[in-house]
């Protein structure tokens, strides 16, 4: 299996981060909206499509702020995703004016329960993947210098 590219949306509004809510055997967890790039689709097109499918929102894609790799065999979920190697490109995004209802979109993720706005100041109280991102996001929005390439993190 090859390396999969994925585009993710970092959407902050009123000091709250938009996240997709899911559940596993350990309880609720959250991920950023976005997903896999399809053949002949650039990353921005992929991200716009994924946001409509997952959060029912047309987004304006801004700057690339983080790149994260996920090599499944190196992390706690290796028993079911040891084959996975994914590179995620995280873009700062804004929801375009005119979006009426943010929630599950036309083609939500498997197991997607809904969409929630998580207070930026309370990110460490939530199980957000990648978990290491919580501190980077808080630092980024506080105006602190952060690396763009984060490496193989979860």
From TrEMBL:
One of its GO terms (molecular function) is hydrolase activity. Residues 2-141 form the Nudix hydrolase domain. The keyword Ribosomal protein does not apply. Keywords: Hydrolase. CDD domains: NUDIX_ADPRase. InterPro entries: NUDIX_hydrolase-like_dom_sf (IPR015797), NUDIX_hydrolase_dom (IPR000086). Signal peptide: none annotated. Transmembrane segments: none annotated. Pfam families: NUDIX. Its cofactor is Mg(2+). The keyword Hydrolase applies. PANTHER family: GDP-MANNOSE MANNOSYL HYDROLASE, MUTT_NUDIX FAMILY PROTEIN. This is NUDIX domain-containing protein. It comes from Cytobacillus dafuensis (Bacillus dafuensis). The lineage of its organism: Bacteria, Bacillati, Bacillota, Bacilli, Bacillales.
């Amino acid at each position: 299996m090859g390396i999969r590219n994925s585009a993710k949306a970092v959407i902050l509004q009123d000091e709250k981060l938009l996240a997709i809510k899911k559940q596993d055997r350990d309880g609720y967890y959250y991920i950023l909206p976005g997903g896999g790039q399809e053949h002949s689709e650039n990353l921005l097109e992929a991200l716009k499509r994924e946001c409509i499918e997952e959060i029912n929102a047309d987004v304006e894609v801004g700057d690339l702020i983080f790149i994260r790799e996920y090599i499944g065999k190196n992390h706690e979920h290796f028993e079911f995703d040891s084959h996975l190697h994914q590179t995620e490109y995280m873009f700062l995004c804004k929801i375009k004016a005119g979006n009426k209802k943010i929630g599950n979109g036309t083609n939500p993720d498997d197991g997607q329960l809904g969409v929630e706005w998580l207070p930026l100041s309370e990110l460490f109280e939530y199980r957000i993947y990648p978990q290491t991102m919580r501190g980077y996001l808080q630092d980024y929005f506080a105006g602190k210098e952060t690396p763009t390439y984060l490496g193989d993190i979860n």
